[in-house]
Amino acid sequence: MDPAIVRWSAAELSAAIRSREVGCVEVMTAYLDHMERVNPQVNAIVSMRPRAELLAEAAERDRTPYQGWMHGFPHAVKDLADVAGLPTSHGLIRSAPAATADALFVERIRAAGAIFIGKTNTPQLGLGSHTYNDVFGTTRNAYDLSRSAGGSSGGAAVAVALRMVPVADGSDFMGSLRNPPGWNNVYGLRPSFGRVPSAGGDPFAAQGAVQGPIARTASDLELLLRTMAGYDDRAPLSLHGDQERRPSLRGARIAWFGDLGGYLPMEPEVLEVTTAALDRFTALGMIVDTVDDLPSAGAFTGNESLWPAWITLRRQLAGQAVKVFHDVPAWRALLKPEARYEYEGLAGLSAVDIAEGAALRGGLYEGFRRLFRRYDFAVLPTAQVWPFDAARHWPGRIGDTVMPTYHRWMEVATIATLINAPVVAVPAGFGSAGLPIGLQIIGRNHDDYALIALAAAWERQTVDWQRTLPLLVR
User: Is-contact 51 63, C-beta < 8 A?
Assistant: First the structure.
């Protein structure tokens, strides 16, 4: 089988399958051969289905009418979402039973013609930006096998970076569609809340985590987003669709927040490399201004209000998610300290705490609404540190600053979540150790496709970074 198949973009692969330049069996064989060589070294794809089953399903696709742009694509779903016939371990449950139905967005990927080969690895319950668990082990960074892949969509980002799948789905609460892409030199999009509907739980209150796409190109990112997106009455806050704005970039204004004037502890070279990447915006005719303080409005008084606003929302929503597992004694005993931290945080919240946190969040949104009268996009690094040693659970300090929680080092990712804004992660270059980092670009409310247009222009300006491939696929 032609090994070049796995190097094609998802758009190129789709066109080749539709024109019958290649068959689905040929595609599946090429990908499975590549996975057998690469995946044991990084542990990105788990719960793999048997090769014979997958090839038989691919042969069936070759015999049936064209189903959609993902016809015959090998696809692995993040191991927090259900795929009928596959276990959902959540990185916690050994020998989890096979799911009996697809998650809502998985239904749409299946309808587009994908063949589900397995799952992508995630930290236990998706907690923390480092993909490790006691069920499958640790996922390794695509560019350095001794380093973290990020999380919680670490398996997805590594699988895409190493050409083991054409595109991948992920989810994001505190940067999980941003930090792993940034650390693996690919693209990720946290869509506006409601763009990709999700059923289950409280359909009105759960406005933290969202599903979205990870890809190697902006066009592939858009293709998968369009597959996953769209209204569904099982998700009453989901979006029917907005006017798709494709703004002119020349003269557009960027608010560069960097490390928020020193408020965010950040490794010096992270700030150095991401600041240098801003020249690519200038090359696109955009204007970049440095803004050191988050906009104030209402109860939100600036940078120092960020963590109080975040930790209340985090404890409320993450704590509720953990409670489902904490209530099962057999699972409770397996919960890692990070999960117990979130559950205990939920138990300690009062109604007054939630109301005060909501006021802070509303103030931050109002501040950004005013900011976007002057600026078109807001930009920050995707993480405050470089990929760290995979044997560590999280960075205990950044420079001289101790990190008091397992996620404080990812505070840079809280802003877009708090205001439910769309945000795209794009590559920002490499540090002196050869490790990648990214930029997260926050757009106006519901302006997802304007972000994708910017990502496409960015891609044309950063061909040199795209050509810097991981050793395993050179």
Answer: no
Q: In the chain, where are the structural domains located?
A: 3-228, 253-473
Whether the per-residue pLDDT at 204 is higher than 90: the answer is no
Domains 3-228 and 253-473 share a fold: yes
Q: Is 97 exposed, middle or buried (0-12, 13-18, 19+ CB in 10 A)?
A: exposed
Q: Count the Cβ atoms, other than its own, within 10 Å of residue 131.
A: 35
Q: Where are the alpha helices (DSSP H) in 162-291?
A: 179-184, 218-228, 268-277, 279-283
Angle at 105 between CA 16 and CA 72, to 5 degrees: 25
Helix or strand or coil: residue 412? Answer: helix
Compute the distance between CA of residue 150 and CA of residue 390 in angstroms, rounded to an integer: 9
Question: Which two structure tokens, joined as six digits, stand for 173?
Answer: 């609460």
Residue 292's pLDDT band (cuts 50, 70, 90): very high
Active site residues per annotation:
78, 152, 176
- The order of strands in the sheet holding 45-46 is 45-46, 115-120, 74-78
Q: What is the CATH number of domain 253-473?
A: 3.90.1300.10
Token match 């004037």: residue?
Answer: 261
Domain 3-228 -> CATH class: alpha beta
| Burial of 315 per CB tally in 10 Å (0-12, 13-18, 19+) | buried
Q: Are the C-beta atoms of residues 46 and 36 closer than 8 Å to each other?
A: no
Separation between Cα atoms, residue 361 and residue 209, nearest integer Å: 16
Q: Would you say the pTM of this structure is higher than 0.90?
A: yes
- Model pLDDT, residue 253: 98
Confidence of residue 1 (pLDDT cuts 50, 70, 90): low
Q: What is the phi/psi pair of residue 425, to 5°?
A: -100, 130
Asked if residues 399 and 265 have their Cβ atoms less than 8 Å apart, the reply is yes
Dist. CA 193–CA 197, nearest whole Å: 8
**pLDDT averaged over the chain?**
97
